[in-house]
Every structure is written in C-alpha cells, then in structure tokens.
C-alpha cells in the first residue's frame, strides 16, 4: 500500500481542522444550495456532530436554477440529513429588483432571514453558510455583509479553506460535489442596471437548459455554461475549448430565441467567472 503523500497529508489536516471548527459551533442549520461549498459544510456537520444535529435548508425561489433542488435533496438524503425547502421572495426586495452591484446583499438578506427563522423554529440556534476564504477576499461579495450582520457562521472561511481546498477535502470524503461547477443564482446572469424580474430569471434558466441540450446533441461538453442577459444582446459563455465549434451551431441561437430572447443578437464567448462585475455600466 502506498504511503500518503505530503499533499494528501495536507488535505487530511485541513479536513481535521474543519471538523474541529464544526464541533466548536455545535448543532447548526446549513444554508444549503447543494453546491460544492455548502455541501462540504453539511458533510462536515454530519461527520463531526451526527446527522441528527445538522439541518439542511435550501431556499427555493425564481433565482434557483432548474435541477439544482433535486440534486441537493439527493445528497442531503444520502447523508441522512433532514432537508427543508422554504420559499423565499427575493423579488419583494426593491434592492434586489434594482440589480445594482449590491444586489447580492439584498438576496442574501432575504434568504438568511427565512433560513434563520426556520432553523430557530426547529431548535437550531446556529446557521452556517459555505462562504470560503476566497469568497472573503473577493471585493465583489456584498452578500457576505448580510451574513456578518446576522451572526452567520462560516466554518470554511474560519479554517482558511480556499475553493481548491474545499474541492480537495470534498474529494477526500468522496462527495459527488467535489468537482461540481459553480452554479450561482440566476440573477447573476443579468447585467447590472437591468431590473431583475421573474420573466428574466425564467428565460435565462430555460436558455441555459436549451443550450446544454443543443451542445449535448452536437457531442460538445462544457463544464461551465452561462447565458448572460445583457439587455440588447445575449452572451453564451462556455469552456474556451469548445467556443469555436459551438459558435457554428445554428441550433444554439435558435435555442436562446425559443427560450424567450426572441431576435436578440447572440454572441458565444469563453466563460469568465464574475465577468459582469467587471462590466458594470
């Protein structure tokens, strides 16, 4: 049997540090999207405290991409954790609808208020998120302030775990989310200054599903996929390796048009995380 490498020892040490941090927090509810970060927090809670002392809560609204809820529930069920799915109403918040650079603050405020109230009603005094060390260093994360104002716990950040660390520990624990692409809320696809509406969120969701299906039919795979609503145009962002091939597919433009974007011009480009943050009007 091969001995653990230095890198493997480092990952194991980070996993141990996370479990220690979670034990200090005690029983908690997780603001659980089903993404890599919150899934790791949930799994750490199960390992450190037991499944009965952890609660998974997924906010369900127009901003949640189709398919995400089912995947989140499947993992929570596999971990043996109770999973609640309250409705949230981000669109009731004017700051969210206005879609300024601080939109995420209003989104997180709504989500965390609902999750915290539900957690308390089920006997959980603490709520944790999947905020990691990279998130804390990102200047475009106004939602973090909403968590700080509400005393939300952030075990990944407290341990100094970066996104790379989160994936490494998740892989160590054989979590299916270890290599899951980031799936931020659908509002992040809409250029700042363009009001967020239920219609805009729904057509982005439909467009991304249709583009994925079109790529699959053509035998193309893209780990990252975004349909950006830029107001007068639409930008499809994919893994750079397939951009040229995808741009030659007539079905891609048709898919976006049928999803609700009509005759809006469509551009296919390489994916860049947080791109709209750098394109503020």
Total number of strands: 7
Let me know the largest β-sheet: 4 strands, parallel
N-C termini distance: 57 Å
**Helix residue percentage:** 40-55%
Count of spatially separate domains? 2
At the first level of CATH, what is the class of the largest domain? Alpha Beta
Mean pLDDT: 94
Structural class based on helices, strands and sheet pairing: alpha/beta
Q: What global shape is seen?
A: globular
pLDDT under 50 segments (min length 5)?
A: none
In CATH terms, the superfamily of the largest domain is HUPs
What's the CATH architecture name of the largest domain? Answer: 3-Layer(aba) Sandwich
CATH topology of the largest domain: Rossmann fold
Give the helix tally: 12
Alpha-carbon Rg, integer: 19 Å
Question: Hey, roughly how much beta strand do the residues contain?
Answer: 5-15%
